[in-house]
Amino acid sequence: MKNAPVLKLLFATLAVAAAVVASAADQKPLKVGFAQTGAESAWRTANSESMKAEAAKRGIELKFSDGQGKQENQIRAVRSFITQHVDAIVLAPLVETGWDPVLREAKRAGIPVIITDRTIQTADESLYACFIGSDFVEEGTMAADWLAKKVNGTGRIVELQGTPGSAPANDRRKAFAEGIAKYPGLKIIDSQSGDFRRTGGKEVMEAFIKKHGKEIDILYAHNDDMALGAVQAIEEAGLKPGKDIIIVSIDAVREGVQAVVDGKINCVVECNPLFGPKVYDTVAKVFAGEKVERKSFNKDELFDATNAAAVIASRKY
Ligand code: AHR
Questions:
Q1: Do 283 and 81 contact (CB within 8 A), yes or no?
Q2: What is the pLDDT of residues 77-97, one digit of tens each?
Q3: What pLDDT shows up at residue 28?
Q4: Is the C-beta atom of 272 inside 6 A of ligand 1?
């Protein structure tokens, strides 16, 4: 037939066009639901920004929910992600327990869940794909070791705990207590929650000062926001933070490191919140059915008077 080569070319072109359309459909953007704890601290703000900015960069459709510090809000968010048929759910759990029922619902719907930032306690490890975050036990140990050296193993400590029942509050508290147990001269004389908030840190520190006065030698705060609130309370009481009261805290947000440079906080242990890229790399792998590390921890550092000034300009959060 005379037209055969022309028809052949036309069919070939149509086949290529169909393949292009099919592959474009295959590559439709991933839809990810992220149930965040809330907005309690500068660390949390940096974490939310990292998750949002990286999603935008990769063309991921992100459904972001701010739990406002309530587990029931986070559970409701996860349920709504399930009904919206997202491709994956990322959960930063406010507290350690109480997640199994909603995680079972996600599993039944065939939606993988990636736990970030804070670990959970579960009777069934198959309910989530993997964990990405910092090692809170290591952070508590680093704080205790640094402090013991700084004060030669002697001093009366007040502790500002994070949100009750949360993994960072539980782990940082236990690891620090175990770390200082080697030094009989180091004693925790009071310990209360400031809920990881600056206002909480200030209020609780005011109460500590009222109750213990000059008995307090050291403050251990589970995050920088509470330490910064406490700095204010200490100054308002006519004392010098960093001198009259030695302060060690966790996070190393820019304002915390600046306080070290200014001599108002003595040491900050880092807890890096910028793990958006790592989370979405993992989401893509899990979605593609590839194997991922079960638990992956960020590498954290420690800043004190010896190195804070050198890093302050390059702090990203
Ligand atoms: O889970 C991480 C902790 O939560 C950070 O140390 C704290 O600042 C935050 O609110």
A1: no
A2: 999 999 999 999 999 999 999
A3: 83
A4: no
- Cβ neighbours around 274 below 10 Å, total: 16
Identity of residue 43: W
Q: What is the pLDDT of residues 38-64, one digit of tens each?
A: 999 999 999 999 999 999 999 999 999
Q: Kindly report, residue by residue over 133-148, the tens digit of the pLDDT.
A: 999 999 999 999 999 9
Residues 6+ apart with CB under 8 A from 4: none
Distances (CA, A) of 39 to 67, 181, 196: 8, 34, 10
| The token pair that represents 188 in the structure block | 């925790």
What is the residue with the minimal CA distance to atom 3 of ligand 1? 168
Residue located via tokens 């500002």: 160
Q: Which atom of ligand 1 is nearest to the CA of 251?
A: 6
Q: For residue 29, is it left (φ>0), alpha (ψ between -120 and 50) or beta?
A: beta
Going by pLDDT thresholds of 50, 70 and 90, the confidence category of residue 10 is: very low
First-to-last CA distance in the chain?
A: 71
Cα separation, 103 vs 87, in Å, equals 15
Instruction: Give the distance (Å) from ligand 1 centre to CA of residue 212.
Output: 27
The answer to whether the beta carbons of residues 114 and 91 sit under 8 Å apart is yes
Contact 268, 279 (CB under 8 A): no
